[in-house]
Amino acid sequence: SGNASLLALALDVHIPVAKRTFIDARLPMSGIYPGNIMLGAGRVSKLGRGGFLSYGAQIGLPLVTNRRANDFSLPNGTWNVHEYVARFVPIKLGFGYERLSQYLEFRLDLEPVLLLPVGDGQDVNVVFQHAAELQFGHTFGGGLRVQGVAVSRGVFDDAYQLSVEPFLVVRRELGFARIGLMLPIDDSVAGPAFQQAWGLRLMTGLHID
Predict the structure, then answer these.
(1) Phi/psi class of residue 84: alpha, beta or left (left: φ > 0; alpha: ψ in -120 to 50)?
(2) Alpha carbon 138 to chain centroid distance?
(3) Statement: residue 141 has pLDDT above 90
(4) What sign does the CA torsion over 27, 59, 200, 73 have?
């Protein structure tokens, strides 16, 4: 972001409690300090041949007190900004759709977030983040993600951030790894890319049965 570099980390844990039903916990970090930890539950349902619908809800612990901490969402194109907004309790609903074919994967995410103020003097705020991804290949693959994040004025001065991310992914039975380059493409709080902010994103995970 500008001439500064930020390292935004997050740990996701999904614990199965029933068939295709999970308890979810997410620990975001803003530097050495925790963000708003998110706790909730989710479920995945099968929709026909090769289709899956995921849905769930999470509520956050309002741990962030520094109002500059939302800058840690910029490398992600402001995605998950609610995890870094100070003095708000985030409540997130998540809906996802995934379709698998012989060579392609398509994913769609819709996530409205309500931000409830802690204390007096602030208004309720909202975030609506949404994304679509198209990926070629399964075990080894590459693709493109297009995402948008709409926010009310109490979060950022700019109401909408549009970004794209080309990515590569490797999947194995034990886990996966993915690397992508997040590029904000509009003249907004994070963009355009390389003038205000951009992000090199690395995700990896393990499947523990």
Answers:
(1) alpha
(2) 21
(3) yes
(4) negative
